[in-house]
Amino acid sequence: MRLTTRGKHGSLHQFTQKVMNKSGEVVEYPKVRGNRDPHNPQHWKWQITWKENVDGKWQSRCRIVPHRQVRWVQKAISESLGIDAIRAFLA
Q1: Residue among 51, 49, 45, 52 nearest 70 (CA)
Q2: From the CB of residue 10, how many other CB atoms can be counted at a distance below 10 Å?
Q3: Distances (CA, A) of 64 to 11, 12, 26
Q4: What is the rounded distance in angstroms from the CA atom of residue 23 to the CA atom of residue 21?
Q5: Which candidate, 23, 18, 75, 17, places its Cα nearest to that of 46?
Q6: How far is 91 from 80, CA to CA, in rounded Å?
Q7: Confidence grade of residue 68 (pLDDT, cut at 50, 70, 90)
Q8: What are phi and psi of 74, to 5 degrees?
Q9: At what angle do helices 83-90 and 70-78 cross, to 10 degrees?
Q10: What is the pLDDT of residues 69-81, one digit of tens each?
Q11: Residue of 5, 18, 51, 78 with fewest CB within 10 Å of its CB?
Q12: Using the 8-state DSSP alphabet, how is residue 36 labeled?
């Protein structure tokens, strides 16, 4: 189960990254012992996505969110805080 927090100004998504190491083995990051917990921010990589109007065309933008700031971003999205404030916090 993967979690997504959707809001008026953006969405926060959890994901993993699969990388092939030198020996040809596929490794999933972040590494987790045992089962991956969908509610543990440290078991996932996180990104926030939003739409931005650039020269009259809507374009998707995204930014990686450090796992220590995930709870704050989830709260900010649920409180309809603007994407500019969220991006300023992440900077």
Answers
A1: 45
A2: 23
A3: 12, 9, 22
A4: 6
A5: 17
A6: 19
A7: very high
A8: -60, -45
A9: 170
A10: 999 999 988 888 8
A11: 18
A12: P
Contact 48, 12 (CB under 8 A): yes
**Structure tokens belonging to residue 80:** 């309809």
Structure tokens at 70: 């995930």
Q: What would the two tokens of residue 51 be?
A: 């739409």
Q: Which long-range contacts (CB under 8 A, 24 or more apart) does 15-24 make?
A: 15/44, 15/45, 15/46, 15/47, 16/44, 16/45, 17/45
Q: What is the pLDDT of residues 37-49, one digit of tens each?
A: 988 999 999 999 9
